[in-house]
Specification:
Elements (H helix, E strand, L loop, with lengths): L1 H16 L5 H12 L4 H7 L6 H38 L17 H15 L3 E2 L5 E3 H4 L19 E2 L2 E6 L4 H10 L4 E10 L11 E11 L4 H16 L5 E8 L2 E10 L16 E10 L1 H6 L8 E8 H9 L12 H4 L6
The protein binds 3,4-dihydroxyphenylalanine.
């Protein structure tokens, strides 16, 4: 009996000192002391050998011993789980911080803003219109009746639900919408996305961006158009940029012209970019055709006006010497990051 008590004491000491380093050790402890063939069970098995008068106190000792082992098991288990949780949530202050990536404005947005800023200094205000247009605003009102050959130059996408609807081929449609409102004079600049049914290549895409300008008042002349565009080119490309106008044709302007600037790469000497001419085309322009004014219920005897339209990507390509139009819509961050929002 005494020997048994000594054994229990020795086990109690061991239990008190027990500190498992992992789950495996803890499970070993459970099996050894609390398992069906464990130490606690085997001591209870000795009960039958204890004389009647000693049964009560031996039973008490065994219960305390069992409680000790159970409590140790629970506390050791809690301690193990605690460390596990702590280590998974631990913050390592020495780790380098997550990099915070700063975005940049898209080059089309950068250039669009530069263009609209320049014209707003001359009193032009921004006007916008829908990308899905009707035939009237995109073609007919602009002096391009159905079957007019000029429509072939701007093949677009038609909306199958209604063949009258098209994805606009130019922002000139916004001119019409503003003129129809009948508030004169008009001095607007219209940036926006346009669509053409083109095979995608380095020089053409099924969508791109334009800025259209329109000025209508009494006595507006071609000289006003030239001065406005001179101002724009000097602001956009620098004081020393050369400018020339070439006669051209657009159904909605008469006379019409295309404007070239001296090549920014070779300064006019001739290189691959300007195809050795020294000049690159940047926009179309002209005096608004009287038919267009009349289509929009503006008295063409009293009012005259000029209009112009340019591609934003084209200006950006010249300014930043980008060779492939597709880069603007590929979303390659290495390309996009090179332009600041300034
Ligand atoms: N809408 C023409 C185009 O997309 C560009 C243009 C030319 C606009 C002459 C004009 C203009 O307003 O007068 O090719």
């Amino acid at each position: 009996m005494e020997g048994t008590l000594k054994q229990i004491q020795a086990y109690a000491k061991e239990i008190n000192a027990f500190l498992p380093k992992d789950e495996q050790e803890l499970e070993g402890f459970r099996i050894r002391f609390l398992g069906t063939k464990g130490v606690v069970k085997s001591f209870f098995g000795e009960m039958k050998n204890v004389p009647a008068e000693g049964k009560k106190s031996f039973g008490q000792t065994l219960n305390d011993f069992k409680k000790l082992a159970e409590e140790k098991y629970e506390s050791a288990k809690a301690a193990l789980n605690g460390t596990k949780e702590e280590s998974s949530h631990a913050i390592d202050l020495t780790l380098p911080a997550e990099p915070h990536r700063l975005g940049a404005h898209h080059p089309v947005s950068v250039v669009r803003k530069q263009i609209t800023d320049i014209f707003s200094h001359l009193g032009f205000v921004i006007a916008e219109g829908p990308e899905i247009e009707d035939d009237w605003h995109n073609f007919t009102a602009l002096n391009m009746p159905p079957d007019h050959p000029a429509r072939d130059m701007q093949d677009t996408f038609y909306i199958s639900r209604n063949p009258e609807w098209v994805l606009r081929t130019h922002t000139s449609s916004v001119q019409v919408r503003v003129m129809e409102q009948g508030k004169l004079p008009i001095r607007i600049i219209c940036p926006g996305r346009v669509f053409r049914n083109e095979t995608i290549s380095a020089r053409a895409h099924c969508f791109f961006h334009q800025v259209e300008g329109l000025y209508i008042d009494e006595d507006v002349s071609f000289a006003d158009l030239k001065q406005t565009l001179y101002f724009f080119v000097k602001e956009m490309f620098g004081e020393n940029t050369g400018i020339r106008f070439r006669p051209s044709f657009f159904p909605f302007t008469e006379p019409s012209a295309e404007m070239d600037i001296s090549c920014l790469i070779c300064g006019g000497k001739g290189c691959a970019v300007c195809k050795h001419t020294g000049w690159v085309e940047i926009l179309g322009c002209g005096m608004v055709h009287p038919n267009v004014l009349e289509n929009c219920r503006i008295d063409s005897k009293k009012y005259t006006g000029f209009a112009f339209g340019m591609g934003i990507e084209r200006i950006a390509m010249l300014k930043y010497q980008i060779k492939d139009l597709r880069l603007f819509s590929e979303n390659d961050i290495r390309f996009l990051e090179q332009f600041t929002g300034a």
